[in-house]
Amino acid sequence: MSTTVATATEIRPFHVEVPQEQIDDMLRRVASMRWPSKELVDDRSQGVQLATMRELARYWVTDYDWRNVEARLNALPQFITEIDGVDVHFIHVQSPHEDALPLIMTHGWPGSVIELLETIGPLTDPTAHGGKAEDAFHLVLPSMPGYGFSAEPTELGWNVGRVAQAWAQLMQRLGYTRYVAQGGDVGAAVTDTMGRQAPEGLLGIHTNLLVAVLAGPQSTETDEERAAQEQLDTFRQSGFGYFLEMATRPQTIGYALLDSPLALAAWLLDHDTDSYYKISRAFVDGEPVGNLTRETIVDNITLYWLTGTGVSAARSYWEDALALAQARTSGQAPPAVSLPVGYTTFPGELFRAPRSWVEKSYPNLTYFNEADRGGHFAAWEEPELFSTELRAAFRSLR
Amino acid sequence: MSTTVETTTEIRPFEVEIRQEEIDDLRRRLATARWPGKELVEDPSQGVQLATLKAIADYWAKNYDFGRLEARLNALPQFTTEIDGLEIHFIHVRSQHEGALPLIITHGWPGSVIEMLDVIGPLTDPTAHGGDAADAFDVVIPSIPGYGFSSEPTEVGWNPGRVGQAWVELMGRLGYTRYVAQGGDQGAGVTDAMGRLAPEGLLGVHFNFLGAAPRELLMAALNLRLAWSADEREQFSKFLAVAMRGYIAEMGEHPQTIGYPLLDSPIGLAAWMLDHDADSYEKISRAFLDGQPSGNLTRDNVLDNITLYWLTGTATSAARLYWEFAQAAPAALKHPPPHVSLPVAYTTFPGELFQAPRHWVKQAYHNLIYFNEADKGGHFAAWEEPEVFAGEMRAAFKSLRTKGGPS
């Protein structure tokens, strides 16, 4: 028995090595794409536009090289460890500065650790990026189960609550006894849940998406609140299809996501209006916004393709929808977050959460700020600005 | 000018021709499909099951006869004609019986004219199918714009109402001055629009899906004077659940996004088309896994339909009809279209998404002249049970045949 336990908690180094034939097969499929006709509108209102997809396909086949990001990943300390029956992949970069604050950051959908790569420098090595030594973090960037290089769950139940528990275990296994957690999108749900579970050692959390809006309606008394509600309504009325499909039928949409690289690309690109237009512009006009470049976007799509995780990632929505429905039926509210919470509202996010909404969710709000740029993928798009937010948000907890 | 008009109203014979290289490409894609792992449940609650889709792909690639589609369609009189700027494909079979009643039947999604092929015999030639000569219909089965062999709209605005107008033009062009119309699924939306237009010559309509009257139905739900039974409440929750389906939301919001998967991946297309309603999914799944089809929903017939979508490359344009419907819906709720005053007939099939009770239908259509609950058949009633469906058509429209009948 003791041998098994020792093996199961082992932390093994990990390197990405994709066989060339898998890359060749992917590009052959991209090149033999059977295209639909052009949408009948001149904007995003019928979905991802043909011109954007055509340019993405051209770039993928003729200019893109997976080996660049493979080298970037392999230049970082990557590991695998088994937690709760699933092999969890994570990047773990320790700061050269003593007393750095350990921070676990969780990506979302349609993201991956790719979103967070450019924050590693500013967060772990602040003195090289306009910060001070006392701003340093030790950084842990795990891939969610079913995403990227983490294994797919082979049984039901891997909702954000279970992921949150796994993260607490991961931090403990790494020897961190005092740490903070951060997340946006699905990662915000994981991080919010960690806050509610309040594992020993967790000092506080920061999120950049207010997950409370999933649980019920928010107040609409002020102009700011009404504006945010309007943005949410627009999303629910015109951008909710992907969410509903993955939450109810992940397997059905999964077949095409595994079989067609450009189907996968379109599905991943169709997230929110702000990021869609930024990404579209990067391809069609060659004008990226911040770090949302053609290369990093295709890095992320290619990661989903090569790891074949389109379905398992979609299933996380199914799990969370089930957990949410069960929580509603039980009528029991989840425990409140009593730990300190930091929150940053980015202007391009799905909705601009006003301070009042965030305070209602998190009475112990120790930091709130409205950043002046950045969107749903804030860490990806504006890594320096994002890092500054984390420094400010967690300063009082050090 | 007169030359142009003549050209555009011309009706041209049509034959399906499928190129071998397209079949070869499809087979190659099926052979090289990259499959996900199995769903984590033992039922369809995560979507189309891996075993079902693998059985379909296997049969499609190895056993399905690609000549079937061409042969079945080309055995029928098919035509195209330009209406409102689009080439409309239709099957047109006249009965040999004099006094046959002209009937235009509209398919839905994820269907096509394939759904209706086996009702043609019983409807046009009733004496060979247990009916009387007096039950005969002349049958017109068009492909909705963007579906099958009709051309794709190249501008926005082709909602069910505009399709209904095109059908009126088509029936006029065929010389029919007294006719009836029928539809389920999206075809019910088109047929409902025809009923509201009440064009000259349209005598009445029949539905097998109550989809085009959400306002009336919601009003009915709010009407406290109606004492609903437990079963009615259950049907209403099923009706509401229809609106919360991922495929409807996705096609209604972003048809282009889902269009890439549907054009590029045959297994992606098959899965998307199969995931319609629990009843037909289970029946189709059983046909492939156990070789036990329900009625006429056989493996070959199911694949005829999926193959038609694949070879015509119309899944994106077909999905756009949902977008058009979603665009038109808010205006329709705000400014309700005219009531249907024409005679309406309705058949509830037991496997349908929800079993509309008579008084819902009556609430939506005041001039309800026929209502029946069939004892078998589901969402694809005409496809699954062509004889039962044809029997419903005969009974539903019987009273409208005599000139001066109810109106």
Write the layout of secondary structure elements.
The complex is a heterodimer of chains A (398) and B (407).
Chain A: H1 2-8, E1 11-13, H2 20-31, H3 50-62, H4 66-74, E2 78-83, E3 86-93, E4 101-106, H5 120-124, E5 137-142, H6 160-173, E6 179-183, H7 185-197, E7 202-207, H8 212-215, H9 223-238, H10 241-248, H11 250-259, H12 261-269, H13 273-284, H14 294-307, H15 310-330, E8 341-345, H16 355-361, E9 365-370, H17 378-381, H18 383-394
Parallel strand pairs in A: 4-5, 4-6, 6-7, 7-8, 8-9
Antiparallel strand pairs in A: 1-2, 2-3, 3-5
Helix pairs in contact in A: 2-3, 3-13, 6-7, 10-11, 10-15, 11-12, 11-15, 12-14
Chain B: H1 2-8, E1 11-13, H2 20-31, H3 50-62, H4 67-74, E2 78-83, E3 86-93, E4 101-106, H5 120-124, E5 137-142, H6 160-173, E6 179-183, H7 185-197, E7 202-207, H8 214-222, H9 230-243, H10 246-253, H11 255-264, H12 266-274, H13 278-289, H14 299-312, H15 315-334, E8 344-348, H16 358-364, E9 368-373, H17 381-384, H18 386-397
Parallel strand pairs in B: 4-5, 4-6, 6-7, 7-8, 8-9
Antiparallel strand pairs in B: 1-2, 2-3, 3-5
Task: Please characterize this protein's 3D structure.
The complex is a heterodimer of chains A (398) and B (407). With 398 residues, chain A is an alpha/beta fold. Chain A has one domain (20-397): Rossmann fold. In chain A, 48% of the residues lie in helices and 13% in strands. In chain A, α10 packs across α15 (310-330), α11 (250-259) packs antiparallel against α15 (310-330) and α12 packs across α14 (294-307). Chain B has a single domain, classed as Rossmann fold, CATH 3.40.50.1820. In chain B, α10 packs across α11 (255-264), α11 (255-264) packs across α12 and α11 (255-264) packs antiparallel against α15. The longest helix of chain B has 20 residues, at 315-334. Chain B is globular. The mean pLDDT of chain B is 92. Classes of the chains: A alpha/beta (398), B alpha/beta (407).
